[in-house]
Design a protein that fits this description.
By secondary structure, the chain is an alpha+beta fold. The protein has two domains: 39-166, OB fold (Dihydrolipoamide Acetyltransferase, E2P) (Beta Barrel), CATH 2.40.50.90; 173-261, Beta Barrel (OB fold (Dihydrolipoamide Acetyltransferase, E2P)). The chain contains four helices and 14 strands. The chain has helices at 13-32, 81-93, 126-132, 148-161, and strands spanning 39-48, 51-54, 59-62, 65-66, 98-108, 114-119, 137-138, 174-175, 185-199, 202-207, 211-215, 235-245, 248-252, 259-261. A five-stranded mixed β-barrel has the order 1-2-3-6-5. Strand 5 (98-108) and strand 6 (114-119) form a beta hairpin. The longest helix is centred in the first third of the chain and has 20 residues, at 13-32.
C-alpha cells in the first residue's frame, strides 16, 4: 500500500518481527507437521535415502523426495547415495527408530512400496530434513502433494547454499540439447522452449534437442496459467524420470513444482 494510505499504523519493528515470527512458526508447524491421525510405527531397516522397512516388514517409500541411487549389479552408486542413506539412519537412531506415518492417497507406488509421509517424534519431516541437507531432489507426484510447499522451501535452502546434490558443476541441470537418446532415469534438465501444443488431451512442451515434456490431461488443470505460446523462447527447468519414445526423450509431469520457467 502506498505511503500515506489510511488503515495502517506503524508498529515498533521489534514487536512486528516478534509477532511475524510467532505467526510463521505456527503456520509452518500447522502446514508441515504430522496430523493428529498420523500412526506411530517403528522402523526396522533403512534400505536407502528414501526407502525403509517397518517392523511389520512393510516397505515404505518417502513421498516428496528422490534420493541418489545405491549401486546395483550393473550400475555404480550415484554420488551421495550412501550419505543420504546414512543420514536417514542417523536421524532415526537418535529417536529410537520411532516415526509417525501418514499413508499417501495413492497407497502403493509402481514398485509395490507403501507411499507415505514420515515424521520423527518431534515433528520433523524426514523428507524436508533430507532436502534441507541437499541429499535429494523434490519430486511432486499427484495426488500426493499435501506437503509440497514445505519440501520446496527445504530444497530451496539447500540449493541456495549449494549443499549436497546442488554443489558446484554437478548440481547444475543438464542441457536438453546435449542429451543423447540413451539418457534415462531421474534427471534435472533445462532447455529453451521451442514448441507448446496439445495432442490427445495432453499438453506437450518441446525443448531444444529431442526432448519433450508431457503434462497428462488429468493433471492439466494443476498448471495455472497453463503452458502456452508465450512460453516459447524462454528457458525451462524440469525434473523427473526420463525415457525414450518415438526417437526423442520424454518426461511426464503431473505437478507444476517439477517445472521452473525462467
Amino acid at each position: 500500500m502506498p505511503t500515506g494510505s489510511t488503515g495502517w499504523k506503524k508498529a515498533p519493528l521489534s514487536g512486528a518481527f516478534f509477532v511475524l515470527f510467532l505467526w510463521l512458526s505456527g503456520a509452518l508447524a500447522d502446514n508441515c507437521g504430522p496430523p493428529a491421525d498420523a500412526e506411530r510405527v517403528k522402523v526396522r531397516y533403512v534400505h536407502d535415502g528414501d526407502t525403509l522397512v517397518l517392523h511389520d516388514d512393510t516397505r515404505v517409500r518417502l513421498i516428496g523426495i528422490n534420493t541418489p541411487e545405491l549401486a546395483t549389479a550393473d550400475r555404480p552408486a550415484q554420488p551421495l547415495a550412501l550419505r543420504a542413506r546414512d543420514r536417514l539412519r542417523q536421524l532415526l537412531f537418535r529417536h529410537g527408530n520411532q516415526v509417525r506415518l501418514l499413508p499417501g492417497e495413492q497407497r502403493k507406488g509402481p514398485h509395490g512400496r507403501t507411499l507415505a509421509y514420515l515424521w520423527l517424534p518431534d515433528g520433523t519431516s524426514l523428507s524436508a530434513e533430507l532436502l534441507r541437507a541437499g541429499l535429494g531432489w523434490l519430486i511432486a507426484i499427484p495426488p500426493d502433494t499435501r506437503y509440497v510447499e514445505c519440501d520446496k522451501k527445504a530444497e530451496a535452502m539447500a540449493r541456495a547454499a549449494q549443499r549436497g546434490v546442488w554443489r558446484g558443476e554437478a548440481g547444475k541441470p543438464k542441457e536438453s540439447a546435449a542429451l543423447d537418446l540413451h539418457t534415462s532415469g531421474f534427471q534435472l534438465v533445462r532447455g529453451r522452449v521451442t514448441r507448446v501444443n496439445r495432442s490427445g488431451g495432453d499438453t506437450w512442451i518441446n525443448l531444444q534437442g529431442r526432448f519433450a515434456i508431457r503434462v497428462p490431461r488429468k493433471d492439466r488443470d494443476r498448471f495455472l496459467p497453463q503452458p502456452g505460446a508465450e512460453w516459447i523462447g524462454r528457458m525451462l527447468e524440469v525434473r523427473g524420470w526420463v525415457y525414450q519414445s518415438r526417437g526423442e526423450l520424454r518426461v511426464d509431469i503431473g505437478h507444476p513444482a517439477n517445472l521452473h520457467l525462467y
